[in-house]
Amino acid sequence: MSDAEEQEYEDSNTSNSTSRSFLPTPARREPVVPPLIPPKIPEGERVDFDDIHRKRMEKDLLELQTLIDVHFEQRKKEEEELIALKERIERRRAERAEQQRFRTEKERERQAKLAEEKMRKEEEEAKKRAEDDAKKKKVLSNMGAHFGGYLVKAEQKRGKRQTGREMKVRILSERKKPLNIDHMGEDQLR
């Protein structure tokens, strides 16, 4: 129905106030059709067919108007429901986007915590390893100083008189020259 037809329809509805009394109230959903009353035919000699035709046209027009009104009310309700549905969909979409953003933020924080915890553990392990290595070196150096073997003991005994065997070992070790093999090739070393 075009806008011009709707305007004519509204104008005809306002001018015909008696036909409006049969229209349904907004609370009802089903169309209310006026009771069908057969046109009265006068018992006289004259039958006015124009009057009968006019009454039938008015009745048809009234039925059509009620159907149109019901249709437009139903359409208006459906459009309102559609608008409400679209709003609900948009609201839900916004809520989902907010939830997704919140989840990604939480996941990012969790990943950062895990990375920080991992780095902290690695630093602690490295520190512990360094402390263990330092302890081992200290123990080894202490062992080397206290339990250094024959030569260390010999150096520490300088104030005492050497035995014959110690003198022999010392003299032979001083007499011994280290071999110089830097200038030799591999085949000469074999």
Q: How many H/I helices?
A: 6
**DSSP strand tally:** 0
Helices and strands, in N-to-C order?
Answer: HHHHHH
Q: Could you say which overall geometry the principal axes of the C-alpha atoms support? A: rod-shaped
Percentage of β-strand residues: under 5%
Class from helix and strand fractions: mainly alpha
Give the uncertain stretches in residue-range form.
16-21
Radius of gyration over all CA atoms, rounded: 57 Å
> What is the percent of helical residues?
over 70%
Biggest sheet, open or closed, and with what strands and sense? Answer: none
GO cellular component, one term: troponin complex
GO molecular function, one term: troponin T binding
Biased composition (Polar residues): 12-22
Keywords: Muscle protein, Phosphoprotein
